[in-house]
Structure formats: C-alpha cells, structure tokens
Amino acid sequence: MEKRLDEANNMLDLMVSKGCNPDCVTYNTIINGYCKAKRVEDGLKLFRKMSIREVVTYNTLVQGFSQAGKVEVAQETFEEMVSQGVHPDNVTYNILVDGLCENGKLDKAIQIFEDLQMSKMELDIVIYNIIIHGMCNGSKVDDAWNLFSSLPHKGVKADVKTYTIMIGGLCKKGSLSEADMLFKKMGEDGIAPNECTYNTIIRAHLGEEMKRCGFSADASTMKMVIDMLSNGRLDKSFLSMLS
DNA sequence: CTAGGGTTAG
C-alpha cells in the first residue's frame, strides 16, 4: 500500500528462505501492489511464476491493466481466465465493464452488460451504477435515465451512488431542474444524500449562478488567470477545469 | 480449525 514493492518482494524472498510458503493471498497482495504502483507488467511476471490460478488474482490483473490504460490487454487477460476454466464472478464483470467505460469503450461495455442481463447471473446495484456512470460520461444521459428508471422493475434498489451518478449526469446535460427533482425524489425514496451528492448538485448550481452573474472566460478573466499562473498563485491543474 | 487479497459516484 505504500508502493514499497521492492521491499515487499525482499520480504517475500525472506519468507520463502525461512520455509514459509506464500499462498494465493500473499501473491495477490503483491500483484495488487504492483498494479497500484503502475507496475502491472511486474505483477504479471509474478503471476506467470506462480501456479495458483484463482478468480481474485485475475480480477486484480484485469483492473491493473485497465487502470494502466491497457484495456485490450485487460480483455485478453479476461479471455485467458475463461479459457483456463476460472469462472468470472460479479467483481470480475464490475472491473471489466468499468475498465471499458473508463477507456472509451462504452459500446463494448454496454454489450457485455446486456449479455449479463440475459445470463442467469444475479446482478446487484454495483454493475448498474458502473454502466449508468459510463453512459453519463459518454454523453448518453438519456440511455442512463432509461436504465435508471427500469431499476424498480428489475427488483434492484438504487442506492446513494446511483442517485448521485444520475443527478450528476442530468447536471452535465444541463437539466438542472430535473436534477433538482431527482434530488427531491431521492429523499422521498428514503435515500439520504451524502457529501458526494451535495458536492455534485451544489457545483452545478454554482456554475449556473456564475453564468447568470455574467462570469465567463472573457479577456479580462483570461488575463487574470494568466497572471495568477505566472506568479504561482494558481496551479496549472486549474486549467483542466476550463475545458 | 482456517485470517488475510480484488469492485461503483463529485
């Protein structure tokens, strides 16, 4: 967790030298550490050396490759898992579908999600949250809304994340009044908003308020930003807010 | 008498 992977590896060698054999949890802890440290290739090397093939390790690797932006390799790892006879579980599909969404492959994510719905796997709210989030970020807020609205028929109960994701999607689309209505409905449905929900809706309202007050990136604003960037009062990451 | 490792929102 502290990204001190080489020390962790030395510890692994030490335990082996003392006759204490690592098991799948030991290995997975280190493989996950490699992935979090953006060293998924090193994680894969360790994986190739071990003989245990279980679902959690594959899940770790699929996520590692996705988060390293190598979603094709993540998909290949998933295929390998299936061909090795290791059965994917809910977490596998959550990781795979989220990885596809985060790497610009929303259509593929939706396709897998639809296959899952036809399968006899029991889907819980997590996969719905992931796909609704993917749709909202992929400019398919209307599709997200339709899916969100279908949850009661499917016997799946929306949680605070579902509402927050959907409210965020409506805000992004510019439908602030619909977002407000959903925020109200969420309370009526007995789901309490949390800090994420409030941040989402407050940010959208502030953005509207700024527009109404005539704030925009005009010449004088740009000059102010450029000045503040040059004297260091404003961090460069601020610019990402503007796009 | 068998822990501990992998998943979603701004």
From TrEMBL:
NCBIfam families the UniProt entry points to: PPR (TIGR00756)
Lineage: superkingdom: Eukaryota
Q: Where are the transmembrane segments?
A: none
Q: Which organism is it from?
A: Eruca vesicaria subsp. sativa (Garden rocket)
Q: Where are the PPR repeats?
A: 23-53, 54-88, 89-123, 124-158, 159-193
Q: Which Pfam families match?
A: PPR_1, PPR_2
Entry similarity comment: Belongs to the PPR family. P subfamily.
Per its UniProt record, what InterPro entries does this chain match? PPR_rpt (IPR002885), TPR-like_helical_dom_sf (IPR011990)
Query: Keywords for this entry?
Result: Repeat
Protein name (record): Pentatricopeptide repeat-containing protein
